[in-house]
Amino acid sequence: MNKFRRITGEIYVAPDKSISHRAIMIAAIAEGISRIKNFLYADDCISTIKCFQKLGVEVVDEKNEIIVKGKGPNLANPLDVLDAVNSGTTARLLSGILAGQNFSSKIIGDESLSKRPMKRIIEPLEKMGAKIRARENNFLPIEITGGKLKPINYNSKITSAQVKSCVLLAGLYADGVTKFSEPHKSRDHTERMLENFGAQIESNKNTMTIKGIAKLKASDILVPGDISSAAFFVVAATIIKNSKLRIKNVGVNPTRTGIIDIMSRMGAKIFFENEKTINNEPIADIIVESSQLKSTIIKGSDIPRLIDEIPVIAVAATQSEGETLIMEAKELRVKETDRLKAVASELKKMGADIEELEDGLIICGPTKLKGAKVESRNDHRMAMSLTIASLVADGKTTLKNPECVNISFPLFYETLKKITK
């Protein structure tokens, strides 16, 4: 695409992936019928639906909403393996629910997911009383024999919403109070939604408690736009001259707005309008204008709030004045691909001044990027980040396997086409 194009107009981005997953899962174990509007019809979330259908939950697509006929806490013994395909959220959160069931079940995944660590959830679930077998004690396939669980106080060594959510969901089945603590506060969609469905849950900084045994009641959910999907357009409108963009009805949960805070710290002109709260989740329109960016340091409590956005922040950093340092982001090595290695390698092909660290990246800018043959590595966020980089690159960029965006944002390229002028 021509570097002189501007980004302008107003768009909706893909519905929130994290909230879509959780809406299906929590509605499935609630009593009654829940209706989910603006659900994300993407590969990962469809994996969650298929798993719960195998567990006896009726999930119906009707008139642009998903209807979930909850079975209450007790699911049906599946006759087949539960395939999470590429979805870490599906595998890890589902494990917490399966730990409380009176049957054995097996979760499998694709080649990529089968390389992602599961010991982080196996350890707390075993402490709660579940019996678990996993390949090499750490990887899918994972076999879970559930049953009566006991509450625990668990101090996680890593900050992870998936680990936290797994333990809290298992806590619904434990007679007493389960406590979970983590080094920094991770995204809190699970806590907000569980409260919305009637769970007794409390949060104090980085510590959450949930009371079991719980009976959840059905609730209707409106899924907001995904700020992780909005991030690509926030960066595009910032780094391309003469741009102004409105992104409508985006979830702006404070545990997810690290991208907004970091980009603002770098000098981006970003503000919110039409702010409201629906289903315990804050929502707003995001307005962003082209800006001159400066470098920053990203580390510590910044990381959990923008873990999925670091690849596109790296693109922004190539167009920023000075040296941007990203640290304490080792968790990126166990995502859909090793994102630290992937970001450094692919942006180098485009001429970026970027160095891979053990736990982060150093990026010097501003750099005139050039077109190149780059690879998504079957990682949806890499594909979208490299596409944004191509907008400011001289010459033609060819991206291998762009269709992996279907994991989280099937309409990404159509949406981008609407606003490039």
Mean pLDDT over the full residue set: 96
Structural class: alpha/beta
Number of strands: 23
Q: Count of helical segments? A: 12
Q: Strand-residue fraction?
A: 25-35%
How helix-rich are the residues, as a percent range?
25-40%
What integer value in Å does the Rg equal? 21 Å
Query: Poorly predicted ranges (pLDDT <50, ≥5 residues)?
Result: none
Largest sheet: 5 strands, mixed
What's the N-to-C terminus distance?
10 Å
Question: What is the molecular shape?
Answer: globular
Give an account of the 3D structure.
By secondary structure, the chain is an alpha/beta fold. Helices cover 30% and strands 28% of the residues. It has twelve helices and 23 strands. The strands form six sheets. Strands 2, 3, 4, 13 and 14 form a five-stranded mixed β-sheet that branches. It has a four-stranded mixed β-sheet with strand order 1-15-17-16. Strand 9, helix 5 (161-171) and strand 10 form a beta-alpha-beta unit. Helix 1 runs parallel beside helix 3 (88-98) and helix 7 (227-239) runs parallel beside helix 9 (310-318). It is globular and about 60 Å long. The relative contact order is 0.13.
Please write out the topology.
Blueprint: E1 8-12, H1 17-28, E2 30-37, H2 43-54, E3 58-62, E4 65-71, E5 82-83, H3 88-98, E6 104-108, H4 119-128, E7 131-135, E8 139-145, E9 153-155, H5 161-171, E10 176-181, H6 189-196, E11 201-204, E12 207-212, E13 216-217, E14 221-222, H7 227-239, E15 244-251, H8 258-265, E16 269-278, E17 281-289, E18 297-298, H9 310-318, E19 322-326, H10 339-349, E20 353-356, E21 361-365, E22 373-375, H11 380-391, E23 398-400, H12 412-419
Parallel strand pairs: 1-15, 2-13, 2-14, 5-6, 9-10, 18-19, 22-23
Antiparallel strand pairs: 2-4, 3-4, 6-8, 7-8, 10-12, 11-12, 15-17, 16-17, 19-21, 20-21
Helix pairs in contact: 1-2, 1-3, 1-6, 3-5, 4-5, 7-9, 7-11, 9-11
